[in-house]
């Protein structure tokens, strides 16, 4: 499964003089969200819309994936002296690699790791996941399973597997609004709901039949997506490509690239790194939210760092894609406060 890209030895504040002792994280930065994008390049599927390049006949480009370096970075992440909620990103299927799983095991055993978010295409049996993840405290694990209809032979069996896996772990599922199959999404989402399995939909990013998405969805397609999309936030950032504004990236969130370089986020890799986890655990945090340095943020793990998200939504639990509009109750009395009406 692949999502587009969407991180202290102790950290020091951005303004700290050179050579000054490392500072403890500010109180308000209690848990830092971290995305470690490994770019692990192997997948057992070939989804036609795969952003990692497994679907297109020309295949994917070279990957910086390196097993020893991955584990070295993981060991330094385990030494960071503040609590983290980490998501390991891949350019393929996580559960194929024993080394990726070994890294997850080390993170799961580490005291600073509060939550471990993993992604999978759910191509294995639920009991295999339980076997693979045995030993990692269940309460730390959150999973996103991506539903890929072109690769799955039996839709009902896949939903049943998600239902079973959801009894072991905090699980949510997702699918992509790929133009040729998006008309089926309301039916698909209803099936997931009937099975008691969370499901969210992401707009397609890429080219299909000469059109660029998500920009060129038709009004009819947009209306279908509107029925099934998870939130107004997803609608504005993932479909309408809203300009992000102020963001907590680098303050409450860190992105680690496959080579261990730490950036405020995946969209800011053109800026100076905040650290290098192959060299040390020292990270220079921003002292507060900053304006986003790019014009769009289509990574769902990253655009949830924005101030506008923080102001309007709250997490329901440890899973990074389970959140709710904060003012739903108030909106019952004041319709202008409704999630879909409020200025966003
Ligand atoms: S599951 Fe599909 S979308 Fe995900 S990495 Fe594999 S081919 Fe790409
Ligand atoms: S909104 Fe901008 S600063 Fe924030 S995570 Fe996205 S790209 Fe980075």
Can you offer a commentary on this structure?
The chain is an alpha/beta fold and 344 residues long. It has a single domain (12-337), classed as TIM Barrel (Alpha-Beta Barrel). 26% of the residues lie in helices and 20% in strands. The protein is built from ten helices and 17 strands. It has helices spanning 67-78, 98-109, 126-132, 155-168, 185-194, 219-228, 232-239, 300-303, 307-312, 328-333, and strands at 12-13, 32-37, 84-89, 113-120, 141-146, 170-177, 199-203, 206-208, 211-213, 246-247, 253-256, 261-263, 275-276, 284-285, 290-291, 313-315, 323-325. The chain has a nine-stranded mixed β-sheet, with helices on both faces. It has a two-stranded parallel sheet with strand order 1-14. The protein has a two-stranded antiparallel sheet with strand order 8-9. A hairpin with a 4-residue loop joins strand 11 (253-256) and strand 12 (261-263). The structure holds iron/sulfur cluster (2 copies). One iron/sulfur cluster binds next to loops. This is Radical SAM protein.
